Amino acid sequence: MKDLKKIINSFKNEKIAVFGDIILDKYIYGNVERISPEAPVPIVHVTKENYQPGGAANVAMNIQSLGGKALLFGIVGADSKREALFSILEKNALSVSCILIDDQRSTIQKTRVIGLNQQLLRIDHESTEYIRSHFEKTFLEKLKDQTDLSAIIVSDYAKGTITKRLMEELKNFSRIKSIPLIIDPKPKHRNWYKDTTLITPNLKEACLMTNSEIASGEDLEICGKNLKQDLKTDIIITTGKAGMSIFHAENIWHIPTAAREVYDVSGAGDTVIATLALSIAAGADLKSAAHLANEAAGIKVGKVGTQPVYIKELLNVC
User: How many angstroms separate the CA atoms of 73 and 15, rounded?
Assistant: First the structure.
């Protein structure tokens, strides 16, 4: 395994394009002291609210906080949610120049109500129709203007940003430029990911993508090998408390979780794919990249909300 600290310190040289579904995460925190007389539900006395970038925007935030440079491609609506999101991104020095505004859809927002130190409710505002063809064309024009990309990430939440045509064009671009194309997948788009560099399903997604059940370590290995063979790409299956399993060439490696305390798993997949892309772009082999991503995920789940992981935090554990 390569020198992990050296790889981390090389993140500053890498520029990663992130394509995917941009989400604004809203968190409402409050105290719960009684049950509503109107229905058997808790009454939350709100104490604070905040917003954090989610989905592909959280992937980009993690790239920036880990020392790299992110170029974020996605769709938002012409609404106040977009304004709140852009304000956060710009405060974090993340360019919005490749984010397109569609006045026929709303910015995706996920609102989580937190009380008693746990999530009580989630409310989703979203559009899931596939984006129109002229947005695909504009994305590709903006992508072709970039000359110094180290890798491309597709953060697919199946909310309509990633289309079959866009996926094919990204595969062609990555081949021509000889840069890795790394996918955080959704099962419904399974076949679109064939012949990419790496895909990172979680355990549930891997089951759905192979139409199988995983009840043992042997089942997991069969699932990963089948997925690798079918899609002709390397596979990393994230397995929650069990860590992650890597399928590369004829090798299978299992890495136990690095989590110390688990407060919130939301956004952990975004942290994993951001760290993998930076590590691979910086010259890490897949096993070393997975070790770094596992450490980063361990840091992330110790935080509440979709907060990014910072380079100093990762250096401290490696």
Answer: 13
pLDDT bucket at 234, cuts 50 / 70 / 90: very high
- At 27 the three-state DSSP class reads strand
Confidence of residue 217 (pLDDT cuts 50, 70, 90): confident
Model pLDDT for residues 264-273, shown as the tens digit of each residue: 677 788 999 9
Tokens of 164: 């079959």
Domain of 213 in residue numbering reads as 4-23+66-108+126-317
DSSP 8-state assignment for residue 66 = T
Domain count, the chain: 1
Who wins on pLDDT, 46 or 298?
46
Residue 252, domain member (yes or no)? yes
Token digits for 42?
């808790």
Any idea of the CA torsion for 26, 19, 143, 92, to the nearest 10 degrees? Answer: 30
Residue 201's nearest CA partner among 160, 241, 248, 236 is 236
Q: What's the whole-model pTM score?
A: 0.93
Nearest to 23, CA basis, from 67, 88, 68, 69 = 88
In-domain check, residue 50 = no
What's the chain's average pLDDT? 93
Catalytic residues: 270
How many helical (H) and strand (E) elements, i.e. helices and strands, does the chain have?
Answer: 10, 13
In a domain, 146, yes or no: yes
Q: Is 171 helix (H, G, I), strand (E, B) or coil?
A: helix
Q: Do 100 and 47 contact (CB within 8 A), yes or no?
A: no
- Strand, helix or coil at 219? helix
Q: Which helix (H) or strand (E) holds 160?
A: none
Does residue 204 form part of some domain?
A: yes
Q: Which residues contact 61 (CB under 8 A, 6 or more apart)?
A: 53, 70, 89, 92, 94, 308
